[in-house]
Amino acid sequence: MTKFRGKYRIQSSRLPGWDYGKNGIYFVTICTKNRCHFFGEIIRGEMELSGIGGIADKCWLKIPEHFPFVILHEHIVMPNHVHGLIEIAKNDMDDDTQCTVDTKSTVETQNFASLHHQTSPPPKSPPPKSPPPYKNQFGPQSKNLSSIIRGIKIGVTKNARLIHPDFQWQPRFHDHTVRNNQSFHRISNYIINNPKHWNKDEFNENQ
Hints:
alpha+beta, 5 helices, 8 strands
């Protein structure tokens, strides 16, 4: 971790050109603003959730209800951040169909409007070619990792502010693409044992 303008900044491990809506497993960390301890505290090596911490935990577990193509693996709510393994597992039914313009009805409407200003039928001309529908390089942005994290942030914030009006997340989040089984098991163990090693945790500003 490095500092920028006197504040800690999580370095990105994003893969250039990688489609973050693509099937895969992602290790995600999202932090509260200024690392404030909204979610509870570590007591004797175990995480004791506060009211807001309980909200964060429940919202995380509900991710698949809003994004059915997501499978959740290990996660942990820590005093000022949340770690979790998110698997995007889309099948053929999750493939996105792009929105297209109904060219036929659009042309007919335009022709109908133009007839009101003419005394004789206009000469027939071939219908205009419709441009190909726009397709984002990585597909619709409602089914990628960023939209998932944005969704949980919004859900937690809405409910957390009923308890503490000053609750905020850091604007960004940290993610790491899990490449193999060895990495998956190593990260899973890290998440499970995170509370036991809180005194050495990089997100613990008091270490």
